[in-house]
């Protein structure tokens, strides 16, 4: 293993080698400062702020020591973890928790077979003080049930369209968060990340990025 295992994405990144993997990093730790991320002592991400995702970074499979510092510093790391990446995989590595108890949660973005025009959605619970929740549409269709902190659901198929999503304490009809105007286009694979704090600042909210398994070459054989 060598220190220059990460390299920038460019216009030719789709010409990936067999077995290559991809990782993006999410800052989902409410109240934590912007951070710099080092992998095997190499700076790979600079000044990542709360709510931000990096782009997917191509890398070779292996074990990596991931150390996260407050931006501009090389002392007092807020995370020091080992990340194991198998060949031919896609991951989102989320910095979660609240200071001083932060950790790195690896979340696989698995390749899934899908039909033309079909879209998929899953839910990822990363709000540290929010109890288990159900996720439903405003029309009463329950999508995910009893999802606890750090849990990641399976993807479910959804019809393209415009949705209003609601988060409710598990088993209740009380709505603690409403997310209007969620537009799901055809041929998308999305994750709904719940981040922030219930009753605190930064407040509870969601991020809905396009996942790499929708377009990265790792999954080219499942389309």
Automatic annotation (TrEMBL):
Q: Where is the DUF4397 domain?
A: 21-136, 141-207
Domain of life per record: Bacteria
InterPro entries, per the entry:
DUF4397 (IPR025510)
| Protein name as catalogued | DUF4397 domain-containing protein
Lineage runs:
Bacteria, Bacillati, Bacillota, Clostridia, Eubacteriales
């Amino acid at each position: 293993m060598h220190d220059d295992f990460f390299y920038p994405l460019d216009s030719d990144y789709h010409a990936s080698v067999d077995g290559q993997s991809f990782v993006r990093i999410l800052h989902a730790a409410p109240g934590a400062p912007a951070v710099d991320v080092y992998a095997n002592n190499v700076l790979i991400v600079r000044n990542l702020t709360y709510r931000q995702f990096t782009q997917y970074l191509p890398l070779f499979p292996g074990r990596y020591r991931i150390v996260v510092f407050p931006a501009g510093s090389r002392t007092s790391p807020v995370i020091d973890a080992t990340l194991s990446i198998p060949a031919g995989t896609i991951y989102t590595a989320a910095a979660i928790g609240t200071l001083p108890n932060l950790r790195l949660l690896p979340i696989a973005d698995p390749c899934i077979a899908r039909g033309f025009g079909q879209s998929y959605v899953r839910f990822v619970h990363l709000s540290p003080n929010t109890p288990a929740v159900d996720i439903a549409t405003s029309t009463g269709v329950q999508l995910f049930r009893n999802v606890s902190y750090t849990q990641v659901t399976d993807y479910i198929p959804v019809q393209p369209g415009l949705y209003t999503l609601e988060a409710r304490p598990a088993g209740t009809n009380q709505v603690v968060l409403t997310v209007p105007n969620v537009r799901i286009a055809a041929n998308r694979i999305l994750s709904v990340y719940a981040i922030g704090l219930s009753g605190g600042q930064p407040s509870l909210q969601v991020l809905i990025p396009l996942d790499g398994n929708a377009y990265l070459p790792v999954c080219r054989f499942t389309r």
